[in-house]
Amino acid sequence: VTLALGPVADQLQVPLFSTQSSDTRITANHYGFVFQTHTITADRAAAVAQFIKEYGFKKVAIVAENTDYGAGNTDALKAELGRVAPTVEARSWVFDRQTADLTPLLLQVKDFGPDLIYNLGVGAPAYLAVKQATDVGLLPQTPMVISYDLPIRPEFWQNLGPLGKGIIFVAYYHPKQPLTDAGKWMQQQYEARHREPALYSSFAAFGNVIIVAQAINQACSTRGPDIVKALETGRFKSWNLDSATFPRAEGADWHRVKQPLLLLQYMAVNQPFDQATILFPPEMKTGTLQR
After folding, report:
1. How far from the centroid of its chain's Cα atoms is residue 268's Cα?
2. Do residues 92 and 62 lie in contact, with contact meaning Cβ atoms separated by under 8 Å?
3. pLDDT computed for residue 112 by the predictor
4. Which of 90, 191, 232, 287 could form a disulfide with 277 if both were Cys (CB 3.0 to 4.6 A apart)?
5. Burial group, residue 248, by CB count within 10 angstroms (0-12, 13-18, 19+)
6. Which CATH architecture has domain 42-174+261-284?
7. Are strands 144-146 and 116-120 parallel, antiparallel or unpaired?
8. What is the pTM (predicted TM-score) of this model?
């Protein structure tokens, strides 16, 4: 959807912020009015490949849905592994995200004998992959990485129960990471109003709103071209960054802020998100991988 909106934003000269779309082309296409504050596919591939290298995995099975998300992340991870861990053997399988039975595909994965499974399903297919990988005997013996922060939601444990123990997942935020004063204010206000912790998607949307507000103030204008000029030349406070910038940079770094990526693991059934073990990056590590 964000890719389709890029040309429209340029035509209307209205700034467009991507809050959770991750396709590298969003910024690589160099739309004049499109800005990115979310992790892109290349960032995810770099983090997961480095995780695979650091933990010594040798055979990686990539199980991906038949969408741009699945295809893009499959290609990106294979390319990044070829660059940083060329001895790792990676094979991929693609499934129809409407299917209710992954068993034949997962039996092929089992025959491959992976020491890590990368789950590139989104929503219901991600849960299905966990459940049916357990049914065929892949899990829990073989670690599985879910490619985004699906497990931070309460319904993760409601859907999987004991099967969720040991799952590794990519996350864009951890409750113990530092926040700006604006991020702390938002966190307090959100919890007071909704009586639950704020999650990444809410932080990200809040961050985009206050960045646009600051750009309007710096531009002293609400005209799209003036806001874009301010965004390209100014520095902005977000929920987790004190000095975000949106340079006219090369490649996919055009108009985007780079965000940190984490890989976490649940060590116990019904473990709260803020108690999940941080496995990556090394400087934030709070425990060791449970195999």
Report:
1. 23
2. yes
3. 98
4. 287
5. exposed
6. 3-Layer(aba) Sandwich (3.40)
7. parallel
8. 0.83
